[in-house]
Amino acid sequence: MITLRQMTFLVALAEEMNFTRAAARCHVTQPTLSAGLRELETRLGVKLVERTSRSILITEVGDVVVEEARRILDGAHRIETLAQAHLHPEKGDLRLGAIPTIGPYLLPRAIPEIRTAFPMLRVFMREEITESLLDGVESGRLDLALVALPFETGALATTVLFSDGYHLATPESLPLEQAREDLELLLLERGHCLQRHALEAVDMSAFRRNVHFEATSLPTLIAMVGEGLGMTLLPDLAVRTGVAEGQGVRLTPLPNACPRRVALVWRRTTARAKTFRKISDLLRDSVPLSQRHGVSASGDVADQGRTAF
Length: 309
Fold this sequence. Notes:
Shape: elongated
Number of strands: 12
Number of domains: 2
Radius of gyration: 25 Å
Low-confidence stretches: 293-309
CATH architecture of the largest domain: 3-Layer(aba) Sandwich
C-alpha cells in the first residue's frame, strides 16, 4: 500500500530537486529516501523520477502524482490540525482569510489583541476575493474569514461585526461640486465585492460611472483620484486608517449611504466555535463605536435603504 511517508519523500524531492536536500528535509538518510521512492515506483508500476549523474527529472506521470500527493498530504495535515483543535481549541495554527478591502485596514489593529488573548495561537493570514475565501473555509483550507455582506455565505456560520459606511473621494484640486459634475466614478474590478456594494450604497443616478477603467486595489483608486482622473467611494474602515492622507484627495462623508456589513464566517462543524466567537468580539471591539451602529449583540444588522448623495 502507498504510504504517506513515500508521498512525503516524492514531494520533497520534486521541490528540492536534490536527493541530499530532500533527505535532510524529511529527516532521513539519502539511501532511506531513495529506497522509499523505489518502493513507491514499484507499487505504482511507473517511473516517477529519472536519475542521471548530473540531474534529476520528474517524469510526466510523476508530475501528476506529485500534485495528487500534495493534496493528500495537505488533507492529512488538516486531519491532524482538526484533532489538535478539538483537544486544544485555543492552541495551534489559525488560518485567517480576509478580502483586500478589509484585511489591511482592520487586522493590524486587531491582531495584537488576538495574540494577547490567545498566546498559544499562531495566526496565518491570507488575502483573497470573497468566493475564494468562502471556498477555502468550506474545504478546510482556511479556518475562518472576514468578508463583507450582503453576500451569500451558504451553510457557514456568519457573525456580523460592524457596519461600514462610505466617504466620497474627490481631487483636492477641484471644488466638490465641480468634481461631481465633471468627473466619472471609478471602482474596483469585478470580483471585488466592494464594487457591487458601492453601486448599491448610493443612488447611481447622481454619478457617471467610468465603465472603461477598473482598479485592482483601493490604493490604486486613491492614486487615480489624487491625479484628478475621477472620483470614488471609499469604505469608512479604510478612511479611518488614513489611507488617503497626503494623496491630494478630499474626503466627503456620506452618512446616509447604505453600509456594507463586515462579518466573520466559519464552519458550523468546527470544534473552535467558542474561540471564534471570542475572536469576533475582539474584532468588533477594534473599531470605533460609531461604526457599530445597527449591529445587535447577536450580530444582526438592521436594514438600511440606499440613498442619493
